Amino acid sequence: MDESIVEVSQKTIYIGGKPVFLLSAEMHYYEISADLWQENISKLKNGGYNAISIFIPWAFHETEEGKIDFNSPKKNIAQLFDICKANEMYILIRPGPRNTHHGKFEYLPKWLFTNYPEIIDLDVNGTQAVFGENKKPIVAPLHPKYMEKVKTWYEIINRFVQKYQFPQGNIILYQIDDEFTFNVESQYFSFGYHPIYNEFYHNFLKKKYLLVQALNEIYGEHYLTFEEINPPYPPKQNYTHEYSFELLPFLDWLEFKEWVISEFISILVEFVRDNDIFIPIYLNINSYKSPINTQHQLTHNNVLYEGSNVVIGFNFLPEVFHSQVNVNCFTSWHIEWLKSHFHNPPFIAKFQEYSEKRPYKQLNTHTLFQLSLAHGIRAISSNIKNDNTFNGPTQITRSLEVEKLHNFIKTNENVIRSLVKSYDALSVAYYHPYTRLKSKGDIFNSLNFGFSMDYEQLKINYKNYLQLLTKYFIHYDVIDLHQITGVEMAEKPYIMLYYLGWMEHETMVLLQEYVENGGIIISFGDIPIYNEYFEEDRTLYSLYFAKAKEELNITDVIWIGREHSETILHINKLYSYSLEFIQNAQILAHSDDGKRIHAFSRHYKMGKVIHSGIMVSSHIDSVDMLSKLFEDVNFPTKNVSASGECVVIQNLAPNEERLITVGNLNPNPQNNISFNLYNPKGKKFAKNLEIDNISIPPHIFSTWHAFMRLSPNLVIQYCTAEVHEYVKTEGTQKLRLLFPILKNSPEPHFLGKISLMYLKGEMKIEPIKGEVRSTFRAANDEKFNYCMIEFSDSVAFMIHYLQITYTFEIEKETIEGI
Fold first, then answer.
1. Are 145 and 119 spatial neighbours (Cβ–Cβ below 8 Å)?
2. Which of 272, 424, 485, 670 places its Cα 20 to 30 Å from the Cα of 307?
3. Nearest alpha carbon to residue 270 among 118, 182, 158, 413
4. What angle, 0 to 180 degrees and rounded to 10, lies between the N-to-C axes of helices 455-471 and 623-632?
């Protein structure tokens, strides 16, 4: 690695050739006295942070047009950068132009709207576009006057960045804009009607359809030129569409907005690169849905994709913490989605676990830190709220969690750097065009366009299956049907997805060839019979020979099992299908004495499809429905399983060491839990690891260690506590371990276990503090002898083995939470 630059690989950020796990916090320098900058930065550094995220508010520094102040004491950012460098704190620079959630104008100067009101976008009625309770004006991002002013602002800011970018200074990442969803991704008609878009929109349609005659045929219109076409207007509330292709202009409109955002971001990148700024650029996003199509922005935009060193980060906001189950599902899906799209380390660009409506809980910080590490996150930027002095109880408590994470990473740095998450054989497919269908009220209810089911409800209920996957201990990766090749897809044994009534022909062919060559698809919802132009296309129909028929309210549905039949419980939505060549299909679920079919499977050449219209709740009992589907396709043994309702995530290192993240999702302790953990690549140690009779405190996540080698003759087979300090000296080793519990919660009888494997010689356990129980087992026919150590509270003990003394200090750590 080049020691003079900042580089990003698929798993790691390298600064000066060294891998760095970024732990960053925002510091709003403009809200506090400059006299406190040094003190606050020192507190952050001592709290475990190694970087500071600095937003530079345009409105703060240029209160009047043309009068920019970087010299006043509170506005001297050069002084701030110098303090960061002196404290060896990296800087994530954020020059805007916007900063969402900050005031009516999002830190854009008020004079910008007063002097140039023409930059404000228009809604479908031709009035100025605004958003939210504060009526924030929405800027038309490609307006020439707006871009002119942004360019000037960037040129001024970049003079400082040039001087302080790495290696001259400590600025290592440069954020473009902020949450560039414009906060309105769920609305079709609230923005985008500014006249400046007309030419862009016409050129977009020309590129897609080439000839206006082709567009007319698909739209069912009679335009003479593309220039006659206006952006779509909302249909009447009770208007019933005769043809599904009448949806297409609205879907094209969302795709065009994706292009607008892509173009805006690429222009900002050019502004940065033209000013000789070469550090990586990063973008933070709130949503993977349209009109945010980051796949398009990177893979189809040469300015961004080729040599720009761009990092994409996702925002984790307070709404994520509705429940721990939701946190795990959200974290798993979004991080795997990031991995499927971009070749940079997964990055939480804005981590904000509390708000005015959701008070701070240490448990939330604890939970997300544990899950982030388990799912492969290698950079976290915390969003500090309402306590910029870092003296309040929220920041002090949060800093404790940051410091613990910092110590854990530092102690286990070598193994963490080489970890690979243990995946099962399932890939969940993402298909971006489906996110363009927005159901705002009843205007775009798919039932009004001739389809047989409400697609918005289908998508909501499909998310329940994603939650059930985590409860069923299925660890999936995500594939993007727009990016993956046929060769890459052939390496995926099982693919799960939902369908709407249409799909691009090229994607349908990709899926057909996948099944033809031996792949297995587990699908839900509709079955596409239209291509991207809403022309009839039977490519996928030839796999299923079925058509969605109707949505039902029946609850008496029978599943036909291999050994016996049973009634399905917890049904949220139910769809039925009409089948051709029914004799060649296997009916899996039906109602009304077999007259209505709700799930079926078919073999197609070397592969198989299984399709279900049974949309269940996310209740733990619904895992049984998921297991039935996986049983029908002979899904292989999972790499991870447990006897209780908990989260288990296994990460594997090349030396066969494992980190196992375990979490209890329930308000009560779980006792006598058994775990089965499999490493298919295991050679030195057993591939299968069984951990029995474990008790887990309520609501707590912990990262366990397995096959951690202390010496050539001594190995920790598993340890249900976290190693936060490991010091080796001649003849001695010291390990400090933490076992987290929730404050004021009932405690299980035994909190932890350490299983040791040793090859030869005598081992002696010497208690120092607390009660320690130890059990020895001779090798017999196995290679290793075993010693099991159990503890129920904070304890300390020494192990004397082969002239080395190993000291274990285990501390019970209390987490504030519920």
1. yes
2. 485
3. 158
4. 90
- Give the angle subtended at the CA of 71 by the CAs of 69 and 76, to the nearest 5°: 100
Cα dist. 272→171, 219, 265 in Å?
14, 40, 11
Measured between alpha carbons, how far is 710 from 310 in angstroms, rounded to an integer? 40
Question: Hey, how many other C-beta atoms are within 10 angstroms of the C-beta on 82?
Answer: 15
Place of tokens 């499999």: 678
Give the residue carrying structure tokens 């942070």: 49
Residue appearing with tokens 């927005």: 438
Output the six-digit token pair for 33.
């006295």
Rounded to whole angstroms, the Cα distance separating 94 from 99 reads 9
Return the bridge partners of 601, or none: 586, 610
pTM: 0.94
Question: CA 193 to CA 79: how far, in whole Å?
Answer: 43
Neighbouring residues of 506: CB distance < 8 A, sequence distance ≥ 6: none
The mean pLDDT values, 10 residues at a time, for the chain of 818 residues are: 84 92 92 93 91 95 96 96 97 92 84 97 91 84 96 97 96 91 60 94 96 93 96 67 74 88 90 94 82 52 56 81 73 90 85 77 86 92 61 65 90 92 96 81 74 90 93 95 94 97 97 98 97 94 95 88 85 94 93 92 97 93 92 94 92 96 86 93 92 88 95 95 94 94 67 89 93 86 86 93 95 79
Q: Are the CB atoms for 376 and 339 separated by under 8 Å? A: yes
**Distance between CA atoms of residues 272 and 147, nearest Å:** 13
Cα three-residue angle 257-260-264, rounded to 5 degrees: 145
Q: Are 521 and 610 in contact (CB under 8 A)?
A: yes
Q: Coil, strand, or helix at residue 6?
A: strand
* CA 70 – CA 57 distance, rounded (Å): 11
